[in-house]
Amino acid sequence: MAGHPAQEAFDSAREWADRSRLATEEGDDERAQRCAERAKAGAASREMLADDRHTASYPTAADPRSAFAMTAPRRRDPKRPPPFSLTTDPPCPRTGIAGGAEWSRGPYFRALKQQRIVFNNPMADLSSTPHVRVPAPLLSDRLHGALERLDTPAARLIVTLVAIHALKTADVARLQLDDADLAHHTLTVRRRDGIHTVYLDQFTAMLITARLAERRERRPNSPNRRLIITTHTAHHPARPRLSYTGLRAPFERIGLKPREVWADRVLDEARQTADPVHLVRLFGLHPHTAVKYVHAAHPDKALPRIRCAN
After folding, report:
1. Can you say whether residue 267 is alpha, beta or left, with left for phi > 0 and alpha for psi between -120 and 50 degrees?
2. 189: buried, middle or exposed (CB in 10 Å: 19+, 13-18, 0-12)?
3. CA-to-CA dists, residue 21 to 10, 39, 75, 109, angstroms
4. Alpha-carbon Rg of the chain, whole angstroms?
5. Structurally, how many domains does the chain consist of?
6. String of DSSP letters for 161-198
């Protein structure tokens, strides 16, 4: 079947798929996508789906091409419509190579296998470069006057700990009264991977003092030792920590999300220092996260890969 158009198109698809795989390994995503598109066009050729002129058998088992073809192609009934149309059913775009559109290969090769034209998918081993979301800074006008729009010391303290000291909302919820050492201007943050010490500035220390004064005035007999409590959690027998909904409420009042504020603070520090080790020490970040934000702030700088000890 050397001259069969289906076999020729399939061989062409394999060749372009190999070129695309090689370009992906070399890091050339643009060339990889072009080659992959040509591989797709060759594999999805209409001649491979609707050719009735050739009825000869495929190569025998001794022929190496038999690994990619069925042994006895079946003549398609001209009255029976194809399983799908290449002109009316275009491939579904997905996020793929270099964050662009990737074709949906499944329907094409299912149809080819039903027509007994191909056996294996020549593009099954192709790998697409995953789309990596780059952290983006917030506009300055969204942060301007944010604390003035909050009316309680607890709400201001929550936003300040995230916006200035880059604490996650889960870190804020776990804070205990004993974690705040106002005499030494430190705040102990207990995490799964260890303890991180935050060195407080004068403004944050003032907010913590105001929060403790409010607690003594409104809930002096509360058995809950959390730094941030509400009317519901103050006298709850289980002494729970503040929920994510309660922590998110101050940010909703100023039209922001906790994750956005946290990312903006880390990105701003990365822009100022360009040192991932500094981010690890200042915010207690994982080294990979620190490198990611330095790359986002300084895409022109090539940083060495960090290896974490197990």
Report:
1. alpha
2. buried
3. 16, 11, 33, 19
4. 30
5. 2
6. HHHTT---HHHHHH-BGGGEETTTTEEEEEETTEEEEE
Those residues whose C-beta lies under 8 Å from the C-beta of residue 148, and which sit 6 or more positions away, are none
Q: What is the pLDDT of residues 270-308, one digit of tens each?
A: 999 999 999 999 999 999 999 999 999 998 876 655 555
For residue 116, give the 3-state DSSP assignment.
Answer: coil
- CB distance 150 to 251 below 8 Å: no
- Using the Cα atoms of residue 279, residue 283, residue 284 and residue 287 in order, give the sign of their dihedral: negative
**Segment (H or E) for 101:** strand 101-102
* CB-facing half-sphere around the CA of 7: CA atoms within 13 A: 18
Q: Which domain holds residue 35?
A: 5-114
Pair 211, 260 in one domain: yes
Residue 121 is assigned to a structural domain of this protein: no
Residue appearing with tokens 């503040």: 242
Amino acid at 148: E
Q: How many contiguous H segments (helices) and E segments (strands) does the chain have?
A: 13, 5
Domain contains 206: yes
Average of pLDDT values for 92-113? 51
- The model's pTM: 0.57
- pLDDT for 82-98, tens place per residue? 544 444 444 444 444 44
* The two structure tokens encoding residue 239: 């002494």
Is residue 134 in a domain?
Answer: no
Please check whether residues 109 and 147 belong to one and the same domain: no
